[in-house]
Specification:
mainly alpha
């Protein structure tokens, strides 16, 4: 075979080969938008769908477990008196339900203001769910010991085990405070990352939420300390704080929508 034929064959074989890819400019990654980097997985950002779905599932399960601690009075006794004797369980249920409701409302608001979730925020959220999932246990502890501390004996003598009562109330308060702390850290982290906050307005609202949740942490912590001295009063304060922070996220969300409309978003 001649040299000319060999060259012809080599040229024919190489005709269909793809052209070598041009080297990627290192500055391309820096010039891409956060959405493009999210799509390419450069920052490990995730969509909020599974973040919201998993969290909502945990909140729903925990609230369902709470109601199992409400006991149906046995037959053969005065129903009215039996229901009245269960008041510590009702109080514990209301506190935990209101607290989880306030956490859920705040969590829902946070998910409105973020466009993505990164691994650190996911881990903070898991810690939040960890402490929320403890609530059925600590609620049962405080309800049981508040209940037992007021049990009357046969001759109308009431004996209160203040040691157990105080421990139960403080344990409950520590659980509430740690959950409130984790929610505060979630808001603070989200408000400081431009790749997570949806826009400048959302970033401002996240910062405002973080300040509110910091206040909740301080109030819950203060009530927990009070539980060493006035256990029942501390539980009532737990309830008041939780109810107050159910309403606040809804008000802040309405203000956020109003600002968006005012800016023409």
């Amino acid at each position: 075979m001649t040299d000319e034929a060999t060259k012809d064959i080599g040229g024919t074989e190489g005709a269909g080969d793809p052209a070598p890819a041009e080297p990627r400019d290192e500055g391309d990654a820096q010039r891409t938008s956060p959405e493009e980097r999210q799509a390419r997985g450069f920052l490990g950002l995730l969509t909020t769908n599974r973040f919201e779905a998993f969290s909502d599932g945990v909140f729903a399960i925990v609230i369902t477990l709470l109601v199992l601690e409400l006991h149906v009075p046995a037959g053969g006794q005065s129903l009215g008196r039996a229901l009245l004797d269960e008041w510590p369980r009702y109080l514990g249920y209301l506190v935990s339900f209101a607290f989880i409701g306030s956490v859920w409302a705040s969590h829902y608001s946070m998910s409105r203001y973020i466009k993505a979730v990164d691994p650190p925020l996911m881990r903070l959220n898991l810690l939040l769910l960890l402490f929320v999932s403890f609530l059925p246990f600590t609620t049962a502890v405080v309800a049981t010991h508040l209940f037992e501390s007021f049990l009357p004996f046969e001759h109308g003598v009431v004996v209160r085990d203040l040691g157990s009562e105080r421990i139960a109330v403080v344990l409950f308060g520590v659980n509430l405070t740690l959950a409130a702390l984790m929610l505060f850290l979630c808001f603070r982290y989200a408000s400081r990352d431009d790749d997570i906050a949806d826009d400048a307005v959302a970033e401002e609202d996240l910062q405002r939420f973080a300040k509110q949740r910091r206040t909740a942490v301080l109030l819950q912590g203060g009530a927990t300390a009070l539980g060493f001295f006035l256990p029942v009063t501390a539980v009532v304060i737990y309830l008041v704080v939780s109810v107050a922070f159910i309403v606040e996220p809804l008000i802040t969300g309405s203000r956020h929508d109003h600002r968006l409309r005012a800016r023409g978003h």
